[in-house]
Amino acid sequence: MIVLGSFLNTKASYPLSEIRSGIEKGAYYVTADIAEEVKSALGGSRIPSTIAIDSFVVKKDSSLLITTLDSVSNLLLSVSVDSISFFKNPESYTFWMTSDQDSFSFEKEITSYTHTGVTAITRQTGVVVDRIGTDAYLKNVVGLFKGVDLLHMSNEVSMVEQCYYAQMKLQFATKKAHFDILTSLGADIIELTGNHNLDFGKDAYLNSLEWYRQNQMRYFGGGADVREAGRPLIIELKDGAKVAWVGYNEFCPLGECAIKGPGAMRYNYEEAKYQIDSLKRKAEVSFVLACVQFGETDSYSPTGSQKKICKELIDSGADVVIGSQAHQAQEIAIYNGKPIFYGLGNFLFDQIHRKGVRQAFWLDCYFYKGRIIQFHPVYTYMSEKRIPSLANKQEKEEIRKAILKPENF
User: Fold this and answer.
1) What residues contact residue 210 under an 8 Å CB cut-off, 6+ apart?
2) CATH number of domain containing 194
3) What is the pLDDT of residues 221-259, one digit of tens each?
4) Count of domains for the chain
5) Quick one: CA dihedral 252, 360, 116, 287, positive or negative?
6) The domain containing residue 226 runs over which residues?
7) Digit-coded pLDDT (tens) for 111-167
8) Final residue before a domain boundary, out of 78, 104, 130
9) pTM above 0.85, yes or no
C-alpha cells in the first residue's frame, strides 16, 4: 500500500499518527479493495472512507489517498510516511505489506529513471569546470544519481578536442575531456533535440555520436542522418516491458535539423503521429515518452505552440510530453489524463542573470509493469558560482508556486 497526494500538496512527508487521524476523521481516503487492510493496519475503529482512483480530485492539496502499487496513478505523488519514501526505501516504508503469496521484488520489477533538463558544458560553465575540475563542479548532485537504472541527459553541445570557453557567446562546444561529466553522472540516454549540436560542424557532431556509442550511451532525437534522427529509442525494462523515447525539434532555428546530413529530428505532426501509433501497435511498446525542443521563451507559462504540440502528441498516443528547451522551469499540467512537463529548466548550464534561469527541476521516475507510475520533481537552483545545487526550502517553494497552477490540473 502506498500513500498518494496531489502535485499541489506542499507536504512531502506525513507522520503516521496524522495519517491515522485523517483516516478516522474521513478526511483521507483509501481504495475499496484495501479498506479492511488499512483499518487493521492502523487499528482504526471504522472502515476508512473509500474512493475510486479516477474520482480523487488531483488538485485537492489537502487530502491523501492510500492504494496498492498496481493502482498508483502518475497524476499523483507518493508521500513519505515518517520521512521514509517507498521509492527510496521500500523495505522500511510503514505501509508496505505483502501477502505470503506475493513474490514482488522492488529490485527486479521497478526500473528507476531520472530525466534532466538542459545540459551544455560550455561558455562560463566550461570556465568553471576548467578552474575547479569536474568532481568539484558535480559535488552537490552526483550522489543523487547513484543507483539510478536509467539516467537521461539532454546534451545540447558537441565535443571538440580543445576550445576556448571564455570566447564563446552563441556558438557552443565542449572539450573532449569534459564529456566525462556524462560518465561521472552515469548517463545512459542522451537526447539530441537541442539547437547547438552542429555549432562546430558535422565532424564534431559525428565524433560525439561515436563517443556516445563507445561509452554505451544510447541516443535519440538526433543522428547521423534523418533516418537515424527519427529512430525511436526502445529499451526493455527489468520486467520485460518495452518503452520508447521519441524526440523532436520544433523550429530548428540554427539549421540544426537532419535534412541532408546529421542533426536533430524536425517536428512534423503527421510523422510523429504515425511513429507513435506504430510503436504502440507494431513494436508492442507499452509507454512512449515524447521529448520536444520547443521554441524558447522567457516564461514559466508555455506558449500557444507548446500547448498545441503537446496536445497533438498525447492525442497521438504519447504517454507523457517533456519539454527539452527551457532555460527556466515551466508549468506542469494534465491533459486527457496524461502529464505534461512543459520545461524542466537548466540542469548544467551557465545562466545566472535572473532568478528564472537559475530555477529548474529534474524528474525521478519509476517504471512498473510497463509504465511510469511516478514522476517526482527534484528542485534545483544554480548557485552564484555556477555550480548546480539542490534548491533550499524557500527556493523550492518559489519554483513550485511558479509552475504548479491549480487550473492546469
Assistant:
1) none
2) 3.60.21.10
3) 999 999 999 999 999 999 999 999 999 999 999 999 999
4) 2
5) negative
6) 108-408
7) 999 999 999 999 999 999 999 999 999 999 999 999 999 999 999 999 999 999 999
8) 104
9) yes
